[in-house]
Write a structure and sequence with these properties.
By secondary structure, this protein is mainly alpha-helical. It contains seven helices and no strands. The protein starts with 12 loop residues before the first helix and ends in a 6-residue tail after the last helix.
C-alpha cells in the first residue's frame, strides 16, 4: 500500500480546529442544559418528561434564536455533527456534552422505564434534530409571521409539546 492511500494516524490540524469551534458553540448550550437538569433534579427526583424536554431543548432555542444568523449557524453545525458519519465529527462536542447527555439519558430512562435504551437514545436525538432543523428553516425561509420574538417563543412551546409527546409515546418494540 502506498503512503498516499493510508489514513493519517493523528487528526489533521483542521479537525482540531473544527472541534475547537464546535466546542465553543456547543459549550454554552451544554452548560445551560446541565444547569437546567441540576435545578430540576434539586426540585424533584422524578421530573416529568415535559420538564426534562424543556430543560434539554430550551437551551437549544435560547442559543439558536429564530431568524438569527448566528443561531442558524449553530443549528447547521449541530445538524452537521449529528449527520456526519465520521466518528471524529461526532466527538467534536467533547466530554462535557457526553456527560450531560448521559445524565439526561438516565433521567429520561427513569421517567420512561418501558423504553429500551436504543429507542430512548433515538428519541433524544430527535430533540436535537427537530430543534436544529426548525431553527435553520426559520432562518432560511422566514415568513412574515415567523421570526418575531412571539413566534420564536411559540415555536419553543410547540416543540416542547411535540417532543414531550414523541418521547412519551408507547414503546414501539424491537
Amino acid at each position: 500500500m502506498r503512503a498516499a492511500n493510508r489514513l493519517p494516524q493523528t487528526p489533521a490540524p483542521y479537525t482540531k480546529l473544527l472541534a475547537a469551534v464546535a466546542r465553543r458553540v456547543v459549550e454554552p448550550i451544554t452548560a445551560a442544559q446541565r444547569a437546567g437538569l441540576d435545578q430540576l433534579l434539586a426540585r424533584t427526583s422524578d421530573p416529568q418528561v415535559s420538564e426534562l424536554v424543556e430543560a434539554f431543548a430550551g437551551p437549544l432555542f435560547d442559543e439558536m434564536p429564530a431568524g438569527d444568523e448566528g443561531g442558524a449557524r449553530t443549528s447547521r453545525l449541530i445538524v452537521t455533527i449529528l449527520s456526519d458519519p465520521a466518528e471524529e465529527a461526532r466527538s467534536w462536542t467533547g466530554p462535557d456534552e457526553d456527560a450531560v447527555r448521559e445524565r439526561y439519558l438516565a433521567a429520561f430512562a427513569r421517567a420512561l422505564p418501558d423504553l429500551a435504551p436504543e429507542e430512548l437514545w433515538f428519541r433524544m436525538r430527535g430533540i436535537l434534530a427537530v430543534t436544529a432543523v426548525d431553527r435553520v428553516e426559520v432562518y432560511n425561509r422566514p415568513s412574515p409571521a415567523c421570526p418575531t420574538p412571539v413566534a420564536g417563543e411559540a415555536a419553543r412551546r410547540w416543540a416542547i409539546t411535540f417532543l414531550s409527546a414523541a418521547l412519551s409515546a408507547p414503546p414501539t418494540g424491537h
